[in-house]
Amino acid sequence: MTVRLALAQLLPAWNESGANLARIDRCVAAAADAGASLVCFPEQALWGWNPASSRGAEALGGPLTRGLQACARAHGIGLVGSIREIAEGGVRNTAVAIDPDGGIAAVYAKRHLFSPSGEDETYTAGLEPALFSCGGLSLGLAVCYDLRFPGVFAEYRALGADAVLVPAAWPAERLRHWHLFLRARALDNRIYLAGVSYARGATPVSDYDGGSAVADPEGEMIAVADEEPGLLLAELDSERIRSARIGPDPARPPARG
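Predicted structure:
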């Protein structure tokens, strides 16, 4: 079985959630027209990632959540977006997976907040992994800085994930790390890793340069975006996962006699 995934690389309009939601809807329509089963957007694409702001935070099921659900339902395609979620203990940087009927399939709060920019002073970290099904594959969610922590992805492999989607706002100055980590996490765990980040441009927080990408279970890049806005398409193939898992697993040391 295969799932056609679309990564929607864009640069959000700063603090303009209405304009960004309209742009998201256009991207969802384009992904549906391209035959994708699921489209994934960058971290905080409704606002622009800002570690110091909780502007527009809402409880799950609030107006922006409903807007994302309406996009998925209108175009009959799965969607991964994100909100600033009001939850017990504070505001969380939350990725939301929505099914083609507009239902919430999974909710994941970023577990590793980017403390070098003070994100941990504004947001509360999540605690749990999150999985959902698409086209017979099991997909996990992580967010940006989580990519630097191998244990997140080893846990997903142990839970049976076939792929992990990583919405991000990954800065241009560390783009080489982004591609390295996507490949390493995929190879370590023999899963697909799909990371979507911001198109070229600047926000008040950082500069970005695209580079959204998908690594296969052998750690090979099968799709890499340039710096421009657009959709990146990739096929996630269950047979490719199966064949990669035949033989020694690099995530497990050999048994000693």
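Summary: Residues 17-33 form the longest helix (17 residues).
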